[in-house]
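Hi there, hope your week has been kind to you so far. Do you reckon you could talk me through the fold, stretch by stretch? Thanks so much in advance, here it is.
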Amino acid sequence: MAKLLFAPAFNGHTEIQLETVGAISSAAVLEQLRQNNEILTRALGELSAAGWELIQVSPAPLTFDKDVATTRYLLRKAKN
């Protein structure tokens, strides 16, 4: 299961569902990755427009499943 999580909630959402990558064909995998990239880019753009700035991106492997990795995006509210 792939999702984009927000803490605290952003625009009333605490998560956005992403495509789970794992299709049978390489073309389908590429399409799933493209769709996830589009969702992530749109969400980061909306956050930026709302006054948030991206300050760090880092891999964050999940400790309970070594084959599953996450990417952590750290944002902060920009000072006015």
The first helix runs from residue 26 to 49. The CA atoms of residues 51 and 79 lie 8 Å apart. The longest strand covers residues 52-61.
